[in-house]
Amino acid sequence: MAQLWGGRFTKETDRLAYQFNASIYFDKRFWEKDIEGSLAHAAMLERQGILTEEERDAIVRGLEEIRRDVEDRKLEITDEYEDIHSFVEANLISRIGDAGKKLHTGRSRNDQVALDMRLYVRQEILEIDGLLKALLETLNGLMEEHLETYMPGFTHLQKAQPVTLAHHLGAYFEMFKRDRQRMGDIYRRMNYCPLGAGALAGTTYPLDRFDTAATLGFEGPTLNSMDSVSDRDYVIELLAALSTVMMHLSRFSEEVILWNSNEYGFVEIDDAYSTGSSIMPQKKNPDIAELTRGKTGRVYGSLVSILTTMKGLPLAYNKDMQEDKELTFDAIDTVKSCLTLFNGMIKTMRFHKERMEKSAMNGFTNATDAADYLVGKGVPFRDAHGIIGRMVLYCIDHKKAIDELSLEELKELSPAFEEDIYEAVSLKTCVEKRLTLGAPGVEAMKEVIAFNRKYLAADEEETPKIGDFRPLN
After folding, report:
1. What's this model's pTM, rounded to 2 decimal places?
2. Domains, the chain, ranges and CATH?
3. Contact present, 165 and 139 (Cβ < 8 Å)
4. Residue pLDDT, tens place only, 418-431
């Protein structure tokens, strides 16, 4: 079919070159956004006296018909069109005639695609934010449920100190909360309308760019027409933020995979989120967690790709920028599916509390508290540290936990030990006495959970601040 730009050319584009250049294969995702932008543009053109009321009404009617026909699958978006803009405009002209040819007045495909991409990304940010919020609600519910589920805390993948599952999950709550904040930051920064920038230098038509910006829900129009059509910062920021979301999901997935192993035995993944082996009948594999971990590299690749594409481009628009679409679409789809499935997996996962507690007891996670106990009895900290070090060696040699040593064995290490040592190094005591804000003690965790609940229930303008915490007793 004839191209929108065909007047300058005297021969047909090579078919392979046409297909290489065309974007309809992927930018057809924009069909609703393209119609939405065109409706706003047509309304503004009429208010500015560039279109008559009759022309505007015909354009609006034609665009609404196209929208209904695509929704009802009466009209198919095919590759006979170069891009989604060509599809909409060609079908509009075929339906309403010459009035349809006036819709493109005062705009270029450069500012049109910039608008469509912003409208699309803006909507996807809201959907991803909703999925992050749903994951946070699941995590906060699990935190409330597991305030006294004891487990080892790790550094260097070695057991370090006892914590609770609530406290451990709370670390991921903070990560995903920051991810939501990043989504909000990107939304606010990108929410300006490029329509009216033209190809790169605006237009001689008396457009009201504030009008179309307001109609489409933007804060206002962009302020430089060259930047309007060549800006992909918001795409880069989104892909960086999505990469961070995936990094957090991948870290969590790695722990779920470890916890699901026979060696740990901390969790059992629901059958709905597991698969078996074709040859080994005993296997129950954590495929959702593994795929989430694996797909992280895919999203990273999208970020690196757009950075590489943009790094050498002069102002203003260049066809290279068409490459932003597929990788952004793929990254968005990947993150949305991973968030949805990961949330379902952890929501249905069973935690083996006794196994987790036993692991904490057998890993000398209460050694620091034993040293603190001696300090409380008047032993200098450096001496206490050495005594407990020798105690751990003794326990390893005799295959015992600290709280399994008899009082006589303890006194051989230091006469400062008394009967109250057993209470002092119990997991419950070790955790409960850590009451500083952010620590795993029950009262401290209840404060955080209540704050999280308030955060999840609040509108953006009412989001509680850390200073809203009441002092802990």
Report:
1. 0.91
2. 6-105 (1.10.275.10), 110-149+163-205+214-352 (1.20.200.10), 367-425 (1.10.40.30)
3. no
4. 999 999 999 999 99
